[in-house]
Amino acid sequence: MKIRQKNIFYLFSAVSVLAISFIGTIYYCKTADCSRASGQMNQEVYLWQRDWTPSVTSTLLQHSENFSGIAVLAAEISWKKNSPVIFRTNPDYHAMRCAGKPVVITLRIGKAPNLFSEMHDDTKKIISLSQSLISDFNHNGIRISEIQIDYDCAESKLGDYRFLVKKIRDANPDVPLAITALPCWLDNNSFKHLIDLCDIYVLQVHSLERPAIDNPAFMLCDPEKAIRAVEKAGRLGRRFRIALPTYGYLTFFDKNGKFLGLSAEGSPLNWPERITTCEVRSDPEAISELVIKWTECRPSMMNGIVWFRMPVDGDRLNWSWKTLSAVMAGRNPSPHLSVVNRNPGCELAEIELSNNGDNDFCGPVSVGIRWDKSRVISSDALRDFEMKSSESGSISFKSLSNELRIVPGAKKSVGWARFDKKTEVELDLSSGAN
5: how many CB neighbours lie within 10 A of its CB? Predict the structure, then answer.
């Protein structure tokens, strides 16, 4: 059996890589007054599950050694009728002890209806919750490296946020304190006073824009903006880490193009009929270039990377482990698609694709099969493919979608053909990859 593969590479990827390198050089030159660092960085990961299923636990035990620390979602606070609603996750303390990594306790706070300086009782509940979380983790033998506050704060309320952070700091003086921050806060004087209370902060450079139906090139992490934010943060004189995305989500728009909402992992919510769904994913090639650049040269105040979030079996929109491992190591991940006949030299040819690379394949696929001195008795395409032609001595299968996705390590059946006798077939694979 002979296999001929014709991979079509998009020019956009190459241009993106060159652009990122060029942008990085520009910003390095502009920030000569900012002290620099180089070499390998600490790389932590968020474990952001509300429910610790067996898959979450097994993932932590299997892959925790790849990270310098684990940031665990411990509790969430939302607001209903101006009252706080507290949800505590059910972390597997035994698994965390076995993993043996420093643990960051993360407290997620939704957008508050009023100022914390005015919500005395609610502020006390938040402070009490932070103490309770620390006590529970300590009691269960977990090595806490810090408590991290992830508050959905409007930029205009950063001064009031400082009030809350000071209260939490005073209530937990022996545990390092961190907050998450947005790039738009970096020029705000209130933010500079806010981080004076923190041991470190986490700069989130992903999902900074609201999705729009007329913006198909929407990026979860814009490399140019990420580089600018890192350089600006480097001049503030406070240690920080960078949060980079591995995830994706589905966005929903009504018939007029109005944004309705989004859905990450799990089943989509109940949306009205006649909606438009768009898929947005993190670009591992672009983000790997950021890792390479920052490994070579970065502000000395940049203390490492936190990946959002840890891939778990069953994820549909998150990176695979192979992809994340490649990006963490500073390699540019790529798909490698191949095609085989599962029954060589038999009457039945079963055609199968496999991705042996370390990045998702996404694009159109066409598989042709040819043979001599045999007759096809029957043939058919399988799910996600159609049989485009059936002529004497050849059959062609084409993907129904121009965005067929095959994750690293996965296999996908294409179609089959049954002959009147044992037959050797020749396969042609044409593919367009991201």
Answer: 13
- 16 in any annotated domain: no
Query: What is the full per-residue pLDDT of the chain (434 aa) written as tens digits?
Result: 433 333 333 333 443 444 444 444 444 444 445 799 999 999 999 999 999 999 999 999 999 999 999 999 999 999 998 999 999 999 999 999 999 999 999 999 999 999 999 999 999 999 999 999 999 999 999 999 999 999 999 999 999 999 999 999 999 999 999 999 999 999 999 999 999 999 999 999 987 666 666 664 567 899 999 999 999 999 999 999 999 999 988 888 888 888 887 777 765 556 667 788 788 889 999 999 999 999 999 999 999 999 999 999 888 899 999 999 999 999 999 999 999 999 999 999 999 999 999 999 999 999 999 999 899 999 999 999 999 877 678 999 999 999 999 999 999 999 999 999 999 999 999 987 55
The pTM assigned to this predicted structure is 0.87
Q: How far apart are the two ends of the chain, measured CA to CA in Å? A: 28
Q: CA 414 to CA 17: how far, in whole Å? A: 33
Cross-strand partners of 146: 104
Q: Are residues 196 and 272 in the same domain?
A: no
Closest CA to 265 of 222, 309, 221, 307: 309
Domain hosting 256: range is 248-281
- Judge if 405 and 376 occupy the same domain: yes
Residues 361 and 392 in one domain: yes
